[in-house]
Amino acid sequence: MGYAFQNERYTTGTNKFDMLAAAYEFPRLRVVANYQHQDDGRVATGQKSREYQIGVNAPFGAATVALGYAKAVTRNGAGREIVDASGMSAMATYDLTKRTRLYMALRKLSVDRADGSQAFEQTRYGVGMTHSF
Known about the structure:
This is Porin. It comes from Azohydromonas lata. Pfam families: Porin_4 (PF13609). Helix content is about 0%, strand content about 80%. The chain is an all-beta fold. It has a single domain (about 1-130), classed as Porin. The protein has an 8-stranded antiparallel sheet, with no helix packed on it. Strand 5 and strand 6 form a beta hairpin. It is elongated. The mean pLDDT is about 95.
């Protein structure tokens, strides 16, 4: 479990972050989660964001499967929601050797504006191999 604080000072105001994160290891599963609060004073009326993330990693011999979900909501100084973002991810890895790993990953991200329009929607995937020296 951990806590992080960051305070950025700009000529237009401060941008503050607080984050709480935790992980728990079950016998065959690892669960991770975090919560972050951002207070952005650089915007004239101020704005606040709350972000959540939860994920799970499950090893199966040389393979590991990881699933995750994240959500972020930003509100203006009056408390009106201006951005709603969410995303899901899935990843599978397979250890060929102690230092070489194959991977496949998929991520879907969606960002919606307060006026109901969709600012962004994206699906990405990756396939590859890593080698550590």
